Amino acid sequence: MTSKSTPIKKIASATPFFDDEDIESISVDIKQILKSKKLVLGPYTQKFEKLFSQYIGTKYGISVNSATAALEIVLSYCDVKDSEVIVPCNTFVACPNTVIYAGGKPVFADMDPESFCMDIDDVKRKITPKTKVIMVVHLSGLPEPGMAELDKICKERGILLMEDCSHAHGAMYEGKKVGSLSLAGCFSFFATKILPTGTGGMITTDDEELEKFAEAFRHQGGIGGEGRIEVFDKFGYDFMMNEVTAALGINQLAKLDKQLEKRRKVASQYYLQLEKIKGIKCLPNTNPTNVYWKFITVLDKGIDRNKVRAIMREKYQIDAGILYPTLCHMQPVYQKLGYVEGQCPVGEELIKRQLTLPVNPYMSEEDVNYVVESLDEVIHKEAL
């Protein structure tokens, strides 16, 4: 392991990277975009949509300006107004927010302690006659382990199934990429994500009507396409991706699989090294295609997670994190709507002990050793 005499360097959890070749190529693309005077819905956007949908394995890809936009568009297409949508309690607040934006009511499912994804038994308990959609989140790069069972439940009960794939670009479930397992996949290209473009998102689907709906919705709900929109038959928003973002996406997509291999290598080293440390456990390594947006661990009871995290970040410059420190139903904005503590007891307990370790494709074996060695020291000496 790395000696403590080794100079400390910051180890970040998210590190967008563009090498000299990338910068040169992207610069050429940007010059071409500026010369074309076509800043939205041009050839780069069309190319990125085609390449990304081909990569995921769907007929259509519809680019938007964020995953939040993607989620709201799909929920609006599903017509969830006055209906219920089951959402994981352990996810980013944008997931339930978009249910509300689309006129529906979020219903929070508790967390499976082995995966941190949805507890399928709790999903079953919370289905009612008003349930219109189940929103799966492939959390931190792990495809939802209960996807097949959820698909069966939805088909039997006439419920629509959709995916938030914001953490899981390139991950697979039973031979298919996430984003192709349901009505629609919603992806984020935010600056901290596995495929970063700064901002941006994508909807992937085989549903032709959803593709038409999304293309209109992202451009104020108009009919006719860019430059010819004069008739509006629905309400929409300005949710378009710009051409420069699309150019960045094309660049990042070309190197995605190589970066995923590096992420998995870092994760495999964590699994080996963390076995030696008492007081902390990893989530089971159940899917070899997990892309590890973050590496989730759980500290033993009695260890002060917040103190561990603070020391790791401040003293050792290691970006130890918390995936979501507050579950969605415990957020103040949802407390005001009547959601209360106790609705998701497993998640409410485990979230207090969750600690995420940095994973990025530029970490070396020495970096991983340094993270683990530092964590060992903090847990057993400095955080007691």
Provide a descriptive summary of the structure in words.
This protein is an alpha/beta fold. The chain contains 13 helices and 14 strands. 48% of the residues are buried. The mean pLDDT is 93.
**CATH H-level homologous superfamily name of the largest domain:** Type I PLP-dependent aspartate aminotransferase-like (Major domain)
Note the beta-strand portion: 5-15%
Bin the helical content: 25-40%
CATH structural class of the largest domain: Alpha Beta
Q: Can you tell me the CATH architecture of the largest domain?
A: 3-Layer(aba) Sandwich
Low-confidence spans: pLDDT under 50, at least 5 residues? Answer: none
Determine the N-to-C terminus distance. Answer: 23 Å
> C-alpha Rg, in Å?
21 Å
The structure class reads alpha/beta
N-to-C series of helices and strands:
HHEHEHEHEHEEEEEHEEHHEEHHHEH
Instruction: Provide mean pLDDT, rounded.
Output: 93
Biggest β-sheet description: 7 strands, mixed
* Number of helical regions: 13
Structure described in brief:
The protein has 384 residues and is α/β, with parallel strands linked by helices. 38% of the residues lie in helices and 15% in strands.
Features:
13 helices; Aspartate Aminotransferase, domain 1; Aspartate Aminotransferase, domain 2; 2 domains; alpha/beta; three-stranded antiparallel β-sheet; 384 residues
